[in-house]
Amino acid sequence: MMYMKIPWSIPNIQQEDKDALQRVIDSEWYSMGKEVKNFEDKTSSYLNIKYAVGVNNGTAALDVALKCVGIGQGDEVIIPALTYIATGNAVLYNGGIPVFVDVDDTLTIDTSLIEEKITDKTKAIINIDLGGNVSNYYELLRISKKYDIPLIVDGAQSFGSEYHGVKCCTHGLVNMTSFHAAKILTTIEGGMVFTNDQELYLKARAIRNQGESSKYIHSYLGNNYRMMDLIAAIGSPQLNRFEETLNQRRAKVAYYKEHLKNVEYPKEIPNTINCYFFFLILVNNRDKLNSYLNENGIETRIAYPMPINEQPVFRSFSKETFAMAKKISESVISLPIYYKLTRKEQDYIIKIINKFGGGFL
Q1: Cβ(188)–Cβ(171) below 8 Å
Q2: How far is CA 34 from CA 30, 41, 299, in A?
Q3: Nearest-CA neighbor of 101 among 131, 136, 71?
Q4: Which terminus in the chain has less CB density within 10 A, N or C?
Q5: Cα angle 252, 353, 293; round to 5
Q6: Largest Cα–Cα distance in the chain?
Q7: What digits encode the pLDDT tens for the residues 102-130?
Q8: What span, in angstroms and rounded, lies between the C-alpha atoms of 84 and 115?
């Protein structure tokens, strides 16, 4: 049988990105320098947030964020039951205890369930906008203020999303994002921490550079999380065309939704804009459909195959069953979505899904 070969994602690297990379190579300054500062300034301006701190990957950004708010041994940190493993790992890096809360039909944390999980040991709430789908920040901020618990935003998937006209990756006391190769804006590897708090900004800058507050004076336990000029240079031109990239992506999503049959999608909160890092469908017989897609040359992702507390590394922290997270993990597929995806390729994906005889939700 003849079929197309369609990857799940391709990095959006254009000639201007390559030219920027070559410029840095020619300069003979490759590590953290003026390119990182330029990328930080452009990114904070785009988000309309005061401070940005570039680091070498998104997981490092999460670790810095938790260190900034002082998470330590035995501190409880509330996280969604459905999230990428790095969200929970960062809690463990700092000696914290992850406390899981089920998600709702937006695939993001169910804010109605958070307060019952708060104890006198709760020191932070981490939220993630799964796939770019936006969370209920009104309730998250209300709870954060009521209990004086800092909100940390894991915006690894939501750079480009908006909540009531305010860009995501900005709602928390400390926020972060990732620029991994699969992300809409990519530096191949890289991440960034964002805040409006000057003290936390200076602390984050120190932590990413071995805790150094001034030359060879180390005020905090830090790490080598420095972003390189080499990767920052790739990100800057992508940010110049980012809105165009998002519009193209949303047009592809609209085309999918117009033509796909018998599938469901995560609910989206009114007055939000989804960047669609993932384009997620929800179906019955997910594993059969996923195999059928893969057999026909269509690469997919299962995001994610189980609630995070069922991952081996986290089983000792909770044996709860999170009904919605479990249901989603058994029915979700992420379809190909990237700037080079052609109409012909989308038509092929749609055709394969629509002819699948295994049943849907």
Answers
A1: no
A2: 10, 10, 38
A3: 136
A4: N
A5: 100
A6: 65
A7: 999 999 999 999 999 999 999 999 999 99
A8: 22
pLDDT per residue over 298-347, tens digit each? 999 999 999 999 999 999 999 999 999 999 999 999 999 999 999 999 99
| Interatomic CA distance for residues 192 and 241, integer angstroms | 19
What are phi and psi for residue 286, nearest 5 degrees? -55, -45
3-state secondary structure 223-234: CECECCHHHHHH
Residue reference for tokens 């790095």? 86
Which stretches within the chain are classed as H helix?
Answer: 15-27, 34-47, 58-68, 85-93, 137-147, 198-207, 229-240, 242-259, 286-295, 323-329, 343-355
How do strand 122-128 and strand 151-154 relate by DSSP bridges? Answer: parallel
The fold for domain 15-239 equals Aspartate Aminotransferase; domain 2 (3.40.640)
Question: Which strand ranges, in their side-by-side order, compose the sheet holding 151-154?
Answer: 51-55, 191-195, 174-178, 151-154, 122-128, 76-80, 97-101
Burial of 174 from C-beta contacts in 10 A (0-12 / 13-18 / 19+): buried
Residue 310 DSSP SS3: helix
| CATH code assigned to 242-355 | 3.90.1150.10
Q: Which amino acid is at 54?
A: G
Structure tokens at 149: 């618990």
- Sign of torsion over alpha carbons 52, 56, 59, 60: negative
Tell me the domain boundaries of the chain. 15-239, 242-355
What DSSP designation does 112 have?
G
| Amino acid found at 177 | T
Question: Which tokens belong to 39?
Answer: 């990328």
Q: Calculate mean pLDDT across residues 270-293.
A: 97
> Do 326 and 233 touch, CB atoms closer than 8 A?
no
Q: Cα separation of 71 and 65, whole Å?
A: 9
**Mean pLDDT estimate for the chain:** 96
pTM of the shown model: 0.96
Tell me the chain's radius of gyration from C-alpha atoms. 20
Sequential DSSP letters for 2-54: ----B-S------HHHHHHHHHHHHHT--SSSHHHHHHHHHHHHHHT-SEEEE
Find residue 103's DSSP bridge partners.
109
Which neighbouring-strand residues pair with 127? Answer: 153
